[in-house]
Amino acid sequence: MAHTKTFSHGHGVSNVNMDINMDVDSNLMSRIKANKQFSIYSALVVLIILVAIFAPWLAPQDPLVGEMKNALQMPSAEHLLGTDKMGRDTLSRIICGTQTSLFMTICLVVLVAVVGTFVGTMAGYFGGKIEMVLMRFTDMMLSFPGIVLAIAIAGIMGGSVINTILALCVVSWAKYARLVRSLVLKIRNQDFITAAQLCGTSTRMIIWQHILPNTLPMVVITAAMDIGTMMMEIAGLSFLGFGAQPPTPEWGLMLNEGRQYIQTAPWLMVYPGMAIFIVVAIFNLWGDSLRDILDPRQT
Amino acid sequence: MRRILGRLMQMVGTLIGVSFLTFCLTWLAPGDPVSMLLETADTVVSAELVEQTRHDLGLDQPFLVQYVNWAGGVLHGDMGMSYSAKKPVVDKLLEGFAGTLLLAIVTIIFVLIISLPLGIWSAVKRNKLPDYIVRGLSFIGVSMPSFWIGLLLLYFFGLKLRLFPIAQSEVTAAGIVLPALTLAIYMSSKYMRQVRTVILEELNHDYVVGARARGLSETTILWKHVLPNAILPLITLLGMSIGWLLGGVAVIEMVFSWPGIGNMAVRAISMRDYPLIEGFVLWIAIVYMVINLLVDMSYSWLDPRLKKEAR
Predict the structure, then answer these.
(1) Which residues make Cβ contacts (< 8 Å) with residue A255, sequence separation at least 6?
(2) ipTM of the complex in this document
(3) B22 and A152 in contact by Cβ < 8 A?
(4) Residue among A10, A144, A148 minimizing CB distance to B14
(5) What is the reported pTM?
(6) Which of A151, A245, A284 should be substituted to probe chain B, the one whose Cβ sees the most B Cβ atoms within 10 Å?
(7) In angstroms, rounded to a whole number, what is the distance separating the alpha carbons of residues A262 and A255?
(8) B135-158 pLDDT, tens per residue?
């Protein structure tokens, strides 16, 4: 497997060198400033976040209420992107969908990073039997197509926002555990940790004060680069009917509902998909440029 | 040999773990398969009948006993009966798998046709217009949800141009084009970029400089020297995506109503057909790991140097 990892572009955690963190901090700010792309993408990301926060005020109409007499209307001046089978305004639903999607994605990414970091730190710092058991478990999760299990979990537990996040978390934390463990192994044997141990610093303090701050940058970068993928997986589960449930405005679910009207109301499947595409593309560009800044050797 | 044995041991461990996890899920899940089963069978549900069915299905036994019984059956090639179809799970799985396998093969052919030439072209013309176009396409493809690509293709080629059927329950030659193309577009966006990286890495080697110094033409260098060396990583990458193809295509199968294993699993989940779900997860795990093992083993066959190192 080690052989294959080097090529998994974009998702390979191993190809970003961690040594870079140590000497990069000083000129990080200057490099961020020099990188115009990153500023532009960051601005776009902030824009998406603002749309998500202020969605209820930005949406021209109520995303949950529609009049049946307006059902399945073509895009018009009144309904810029048309209406769905219940007569609800598609544009308003897409705007409010930003909130649902972004909220779910951020919860998922944070949860995955926390669980992965916890397992990885435990395994890396304590070693021995704990490490063996935890890493066996991690390897098990990695040697299996996660999305299949996620579908089964979300489906069996019943589709809901929380179950979707949990299902995807169960199958996604292992990558982070691997990454964090390898980082911790490198840090653990450095002199400053030994010094702290000799001073009688408690294990808890060592982990909180010395280990975690050193692993955090890499975890954050990896998480940032995963946002787009996670967002698509959430939309995929909702599309299958195992994610957010009606009448929640969620893009994957909207595509699922629109699918039945592909012949009569194609706008119902074009625009929500475009929303996913645009937001995922922006997050991917942002993640890539973030990696370029922190690891310039990679093209 | 020892390495393969070790891998097999690990595989067995993973299979036990994954199947146990799924079993736990079905046990914890809300909703009762027995009442679901009886309701779909249109029988009047009485308490005795529910108890009787529960007993017949072995659902009144302790959890661990149920798991051991099931696992014992699996070792004999018996994964139980599907609640909803009243057929052995094994039969249902094989039925669905045939469709998925066919789809996977056609997809792989499409992927190779699309991404090999484009990836190589982009590597050779690095940082020129073709490279930017290919990288742009690849980026767009990676950021589009696969099911949206599917819906768009369905709309344009199925509904507007009427070139292909829009839904099918039978496996037909015309019907396979759109689902396979959808998957191929999605996979190629990743694979194209990987092909480019692999070829660029090879082009950086000294032997390429040497070949150029000897006055060989760029075409000869590419075809005779670079490509043979690039095959190994390319196969690895493709092998890993085959595993993904066999397992993760439920969404696309649903869009095109393709009679495959993913579509079957989605229906099994909504019917609470637990034996079928358990069988599905286990089956995908087996297929995925066997393919990865075969890919790993193909290294030493394709590159005998690795065999020596392993010894």
Answers:
(1) A235, A239, A269, A272, A273, B145, B147, B148, B151
(2) 0.84
(3) yes
(4) A144
(5) 0.85
(6) A151
(7) 10
(8) 999 999 989 998 999 999 988 888
